[in-house]
Specification:
binds 3,4-dihydroxyphenylalanine; single chain; 7-stranded mixed beta sheet; 2 domains; 19% strand; 342 residues; BirA Bifunctional Protein, domain 2; alpha+beta
Amino acid sequence: MTEKIISLRTKIETDLKQATDLADLETLRVSVLGKKGEITNLLKSLSQLPPDERRQAGQAANELRDWATLAIADAKGEITAREQANSLATESIDVTLPGRRRTIGRHHPISTTHTQLENLFTRLGFSILEGPHIETVYHNFDALNSPQNHPSRDETDTFYFSDELLLRCHTSPMQIRVMKTQAPPIRIVVPGMTFRRDEIDATHTPAFHQMEGLVVDKGIHFGNLKGMLELIVKELFGPEAQIRLRPSHFPFTEPSAEVDITCYSCKAKTMEGCRVCKGSGWVELWGCGMVHPQVLQNCGIDPTVYSGYAFGLGTDRLTSAVYGITDPRLYFENDMQFLCQF
Ligand code: DAH
């Protein structure tokens, strides 16, 4: 037994000298001290020795195990130090290289417009809600009083999934969802993405953003709507900006109006060459009106007791107006050079 122990020690000493890296050393450790390692097996075999030999051999085997554990740990320390010294000598850091700057994200300009408007509406006691992008034909058209032959119902205008489901073409269906589930007084705005089957060009993108507003209470009149529109415009364009209302038609409002603002580009000086207002001094920005009595009724609200107003802000266009952006495609290209200007 003693001979076996001595020869094992000699063998481990030789192997240790040959282990040049940490991987070699680990292989050696496993082969010696691992579950099926040579020293482990040796310790196990002690039980087969006659009792008088066992004591002495056991002591020697334990000493061998302690020695091997230490010797391998020492060798590991030496190899690690050697590898570190080596890498310090061969690798170098060029402290003159320029640093790598981390780019900090920014808000998308449309998000900035939404935040600005949401702050205004929150101050005025409105709730901010979001609605589903996938809508039913009922919420998107029927309940909004849209006639069966309305062009926007056409498959060429709206993305349909089936006869019943579509990608909402405006945020107005949220008027229905809210009026059906909340009793007046209602004061909400709904920011979100909307979709139409438009070809992409310099004035159209198939996805764009709107912010729907809805107020329903007793005694709400057109003057309330106009006051609100003025507040919105002054918030975004400053105290000098003015609005003009033109009669229009939407199935879900009566009367309906189109909101124009004084041209933000030529400041309504009606310059003939102004590309934005084409010399008229006014820019069309969004639609609005008094909630149609039929729509109130569709939602179980008595139009002889309650009235309301609604508006649908096209926030892409509004953002273009605020920053003088002339091509809405830029909003969706995620070009950092564009986005970092805001
Ligand atoms: N939903 C209309 C559209 O996308 C915009 C609109 C007009 C919304 C009048 C309204 C409104 O709430 O009262 O063209």
